[in-house]
Design goal:
mainly beta, 4-stranded antiparallel beta sheet, 2 helices, 8 strands, elongated
């Protein structure tokens, strides 16, 4: 009972998503007679703290009856590519390392996360995606980087 209370508290604390993903498209990977097929979904989201950077995320989504009911656990595999899609500007100071996206990938315990890191030496924004659970995470991850023109300041708090 105590573990359940702790798990629910952690879920509520991490439930806010800093950015909203927009589905770009998907491909089916496994046919399911009942419910939607298993698929790979490609989503895009704009970095909430950096104007001009969009991240594209591909990940597995479980179909079937459990997937339709929101009870399935999506696989930990994902890939990310962040790109400059316009002039980069950083209107307010950003953290040197900050979670900018989080989405539930199982009923309660598993989340997909994206963390932005600032590499000041190389004047680059680094984006890492990974999956974690309340008890145990996965070492599977993907990383991408967006170089920022040296004329554009990267204010870090």
């Amino acid at each position: 009972m105590r573990h359940l209370a702790l798990s629910l508290t952690l879920l509520l604390l991490t439930g806010a998503t800093a950015a909203q993903a927009e589905e770009i498209g998907s491909v089916d990977t496994v046919f399911k007679l009942i419910g939607s097929d298993h698929k790979i979904v490609v989503e895009a989201f704009d970095d909430p703290g950096v104007t001009g950077v969009t991240c594209f995320l591909s990940r597995a989504k479980t179909g079937g009856i459990k997937g339709a009911l929101g009870l399935a656990e999506d696989k930990s595999e994902s890939s990310i590519a962040c790109r400059q899609v316009g002039p980069i500007s950083i209107p307010k100071p950003i953290q040197a390392q900050e979670e900018i996206f989080s989405e539930r990938t199982s009923f309660i315990f598993k989340r997909l996360r994206i963390v932005r890191m600032v590499d000041l030496k190389r004047h680059t924004l680094v984006y890492l995606t990974y999956s974690d659970r309340v008890i145990e995470g996965s070492p599977q991850n993907s990383v991408t980087a967006v170089p920022v023109d040296r004329a554009t300041a990267i204010p870090v708090r």
